[in-house]
Amino acid sequence: MKTLLCSLILIISGLTTLQAQFNEDVILNLETEDQKLLNWGYYLGFNQYDFKVDYENHNPSTVPIDEMLTSKSLGFNVGLIGELRLNNYMDLRLEPGLYYNQRDLIFRNNTTNDYSELVPVKSTYIHIPLLLKVSTKRLGNIKPYIVGGAATSLNLSSNEGNSEGIKEGIVSMRKSNYYWEVGFGIDIYLRYFKFSPSIRGSFALKDEIYRGKNVDKDYFQGPKIYNGIYSRAIFVNFTFE
Q1: What is the DSSP string of 126-182?
Q2: Residue 25 phi/psi, 5° resolution?
Q3: How far apart are the first and last CA of the chain?
Q4: Integer Cα distance of 210 and 12 in angstroms
Q5: What percent of the chain has pLDDT over 90?
Q6: Does 64 have pLDDT greater than 60?
Q7: Whole-number percent of the chain with pLDDT over 70
Q8: What pTM did the predictor assign?
């Protein structure tokens, strides 16, 4: 994942430098594209979700499970784009999409130092970000930009309220959450459409785990060892407008 991200960053940087050097000679594509009040498109991409664990101060000798790790995998994204032009350099974007991913939680036993259990966490999100896109001046047929904003999501795989699931080794995820997001990308103006690769980070504001009541698992019960478990993710999207 790091290699892919670094490669995309280098490609974007290289295209920006190359286009700037030949800006005077380039034939402009889609010259009036940025003058539209409303713009529509779709995107495809992939994601990698992780958990950030906020540990509670506790006495390790009294807690059977001490550390929680995440085994990450690549998921996929697909969605639509609606863009409202504010001025020559700013646009407001709504990007509802479907995001699928699986993470595996690994629990390390504090007393034996063994990795005791691996619990799969499958998530299918309806993810809805509202983003402010701030662009540079168009350089020939490219235009770099940064984006930032807020998002909400609905987890279609959630089993919130199902305490029995925790007994069976299934972690219960909450139905909804809120995020802040920031990223950057580049608009590439081709002959018939605009293509935009982008990278964005997403960071949850609420605890993602439903802890339940009166259950037997040590993960989230008994002595409180986790203040919060928060989702965070990297999205790499390829946009067509």
Answers
A1: EEEEEEEEEE---BTTEEEEEEEEEEEEEETT--TT-HHHHHTT-PEEPSEEEEEEE
A2: -100, -10
A3: 26
A4: 40
A5: 35
A6: no
A7: 68
A8: 0.78
Who contacts 101 (Cβ-Cβ below 8 Å, separation ≥6)? Answer: 47, 48, 49, 73, 74, 75, 122, 123, 125, 233
From 226, 186, 178, select the one nearest 202 (Cα to Cα). Answer: 178
81-128 residue pLDDT tens: 999 999 989 999 999 999 999 888 777 666 666 666 677 788 899 999
For residue 26, the SS3 value is: coil
Judge contact between 143 and 15, C-beta under 8 A: no
**Mean of all residue pLDDT scores within the chain:** 78
Q: Which of 113, 110, 99, 123 lies closest to 51 in space, CA to CA?
A: 123
Q: Where are the domains positioned within the chain?
A: 2-240
pLDDT digits (tens, 9 = 90+) for 137-173: 888 888 999 999 999 999 988 777 655 544 455 567 7
Q: How many Å separate Cα 62 from the centre of its chain?
A: 36
Residues 181/147, Cβ–Cβ less than 8 Å: yes
CATH code matching the domain that covers 2-240, chosen among 2.40.160.20, 3.40.50.2300, 1.10.390.10, 3.40.462.20: 2.40.160.20
| Amino acid at residue number 3 | T
The H or E element spanning position 5 is helix 2-21
Partners of 42 in beta bridges: 80, 240
How does 40-58 read in b/e, with b if 16+ C-beta sit within 10 Å? ebebebbbbbebebeeeee
pLDDT at 131: 96
- Report strand pairing: 90-94 vs 194-204: unpaired
